[in-house]
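re: ur question from yesterday

yeah so i grabbed the chain u mentioned. its 168 aa long if i counted rite. heres the sequnce exactly as i have it in my notes:
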Amino acid sequence: MSIKVGDRVPEGTLTEFIETATDTCAVGPNSFQVADLVKGRKIAVFAVPGAFTPTCSAKHLPGFLELADQIRAKGVDEIWCLAVNDAFVMGAWGRDQGVQGRIRMMADGSAAWTCALGLEMDLTARGMGVRSQRYSALIDDGVVTQLNLEAPGQFQVSDAQTLLSQLG
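ran it thru and got these structure tokens back, copy pasting raw so excuse formatting
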């Protein structure tokens, strides 16, 4: 059963490759509890089947980069790109795409949080293992207020422009 609008997101741990050390984060992969990240905040999330894959690299991530300032201007605190890849891959993909901190490149390496959301898909037959379905969502203080889930192989409703228009 997959998550739906009105549901609270499940507990989980995501990792992010940190490029520059801070007082609270070392350089390299750092783990974050989803509950801590979403508490009292509005988060725009878009999930992709995999880093460096064609649609994800040519359309999905670039669209959110292009509209990041407009999305934030509508009251969104953070934008997350989520994929079932490890933090090293997500960090490299972010560098390759010129993300430069505008989008958090969140790794769900073992698909644990993706499965808890009920938004996984099995691409084992294509040599990719369990991955995330393609979607975008708005999470407000831990509650899903928008969910744009793509049909398999499609890219029509999870784009940045659609989510921006839903922000009012």
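noticed a couple things. The beta strands are 13-18, 28-33, 42-48, 78-83, 104-107, 120-122, 130-132, 135-140, 143-149. also The helical segments are 34-38, 54-73, 87-97, 112-117, 160-166.
anyway ttyl
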